[in-house]
Amino acid sequence: MHFVDATVWNVSAPSVGRTAERIADLIGSIGHKREGASAIAATASGKVMMNYDAEYDNRVRVPGYADIFARWRRQAADYRVACSSAEVGLSYGSSPRQTLDIFPALNCAADPPVALFIHGGWWRSLEPETFSHMAMGPNANGVTVGVAGYDLVPQVSIGDIVTQMRAACLHLWRRYRKRIAVYGHSAGGHLSACMIATDWTLLDPSVPRDLVHSAYSISGVFDLRPVMHTSMNTDFKLDDHSALALSPIRWKPPRGAVLDAVVGALESSEFLRQSKAIVDTWSPRTEMRYDEIPGTDHFTVLDAFADPASRMTRRVCELASRPL
Predict the structure, then answer these.
(1) What pTM was computed for the model?
(2) Domains in the chain and their CATH numbers?
(3) pLDDT 10s digits, 176-196
(4) CB-count exposure of residue 246 (10 Å: 0-12, 13-18, 19+)
């Protein structure tokens, strides 16, 4: 595969067509589906077609999502109250949504590692105050966490959001003078991969090239071409060029970095495929790990971060504390 530049998105590689093996994989993976409409249909000519809306619209796939979101907001509000040392709504950019909420490490040495959490919502919904409790588990294990906000599509482009997340990472560097780990969910999983594949010296020569040294991408989307074929693209406004340019699976894998691609075991075949694909594509230049979390869907997969002892929390803390 020809990789594109991670910072300027200079796409020169042709789109790769669907192969017979790809079709077989898609059909074989249908057993992973637990909810939602059928994702595979056969045409009169015998061709197999993918229903990308059924694969990628998790609010349809998980009917109880509204209750999950309400629970997240309660847990997040409770944690903001409990964490009296938190700094909420720090500006890192020019718009009101470009904010960082900082949750300091608890019961730790004077120089704790730093991690950034990036929320999901398909780049078009949700806000950092719904995810304050994503810092709970890492905080208890001695990691300082920033929870980032960003502007939403269609008011801005996905490329603009990538730029904003880079600004948030630079803000953390200038505050702490420490390399950081990034963990993110769904659209935030995509953005986490974008952060680790960024050559930071091209943005600021005084910053370490590997400013983001590790990433933990939960339910991420790394190839945006399928997303063009969903109804959500009305907001994303992706075309062939921008979908390729903003797909981190097409970017040059960061040498010496670590990325975990993690997904709920009950998620759609496409979300499972996306995580497996970036692990296969970026290895061995980048140290990669694929993990399925048993019994979890696209939303409940995040519950582990409220538990200081969960394997997901422990892994993020391990990455944040990684010796460099």
Answers:
(1) 0.87
(2) 63-320 (3.40.50.1820)
(3) 999 999 999 999 999 999 999
(4) buried
